[in-house]
Amino acid sequence: AATSFLSAPPPPPAPAAAFRARSPQPPARRGGARVAMATLACGPDEAMSAYFCVVLFDTIGYELFPQDLQESAGDMGTGIYCTLDLEKARATGKQILVAEFRPSPGGGTRSGASELLAITDRRCEDGRRWRQLGYNGVIFEGTELCIRVECIRALYRREWQQPEAWQALGRILSHMRDPPLSIDADTARTEASWAKAMERLKTYGDKQVLESREHLEARWQQLARPNVRSCVIS
Asked: By the 8 A CB rule, do 80 and 146 touch?
């Protein structure tokens, strides 16, 4: 199902992740073959970033809000489908947004969910149950994610060629874990300054997604090794 974007008012150093068991559970199976699953434990408020692709109306301004996103149904159940692969994002032909999310928010979430589930086969039915199992998202195929909208803390455009929107940019930066720039009363608000800020934000977003990919894909590949016979990687 297509993801839609609605309009609504805005809402008012992290430890490295490691695979661990949330609770004992047998390896999933599909067609008699073992499918490895594991919990990707994340530190409190550890921030990760991924690309979210969407079609936006021209009338929508620069500022976007995570709670405006509508979760869609897919192979891994219902959630916000993102990718860590920039080329895949570009291939969609849609507008690319960067979503900064926290799998284990320090203040918790409405659902009480936390951490990510990793699974080696997206066709496995168990992978679709990540919500029921209490996770904030699932990683599959190494670079693909499906996450709860509530764990997204900042959402911004990778590119923007339209008029300046300094106040909106300031609000977006305030929701980031480690914003790449700051805006205050002394900030020069010229056309050149805006272009420089957009380029800096784009570079920052790509860097954050790349770091998240290197971090998550390596652990997913560890889980996907043929000699892995357990649902847990420690």
From this structure: yes
